[in-house]
Write a structure and sequence with these properties.
Layout (H helix, E strand, L loop, with lengths): L2 H8 L2 H4 L11 E4 L3 H12 L4 E4 L29 H13 L5 H11 L6 E5 L7 E4 L1
Parallel strand pairs: 1-2
Antiparallel strand pairs: 3-4
């Protein structure tokens, strides 16, 4: 048995998994950093809301991230295209990422949001979430 395993067993599980509690006072908490969650967070913040965007992955974008590599292709047809914040993000990508590299795409998405944490639980009495626990 290694020394690190001995040390871990000497420490009770409750203490090993304990994290400092941090409370964020926000108007809106969006759980999910996919394209819909990211666009919702940007829109709410632009309208003056204090927004917390939580994501369970190391990058934003959901299926459109470098992890899955599915480009945004919701609007189909000769005269159809994505608009609004999604178009803004895509135009930023064309400007900053001429080679359309996924790693740079992740950076473009990250510029829209600066906080990424992992949801692990919560409670929702009534219709509004009272608490969300995350690390």
């Amino acid at each position: 048995m290694s020394e690190s395993n001995t040390d871990r067993r000497a420490c009770p599980r409750e203490q090993r998994n304990a994290f400092d509690a941090v409370t964020h006072d926000v108007d809106l908490c969006i759980v999910g950093g996919g394209m819909a969650g990211l666009c919702a967070a940007v829109a709410a913040a632009r309208h003056g809301a204090r927004v917390l965007l939580m994501n369970d992955r190391p990058v934003l974008g959901g299926n459109a991230s470098s992890e899955i590599r599915m480009w945004i292709c919701g609007a189909h047809g000769a005269d159809n295209k994505e608009t609004g914040i999604l178009e803004e993000i895509m135009l930023d990508n064309y400007h900053l990422n001429e080679g359309l590299k996924y790693t740079l795409w992740d950076t473009v998405l990250c510029e829209k949001s600066k906080l990424s944490t992992k949801q692990v639980g919560g409670s929702a009495p009534g219709r509004c979430a009272a608490t969300i626990s995350a690390w």
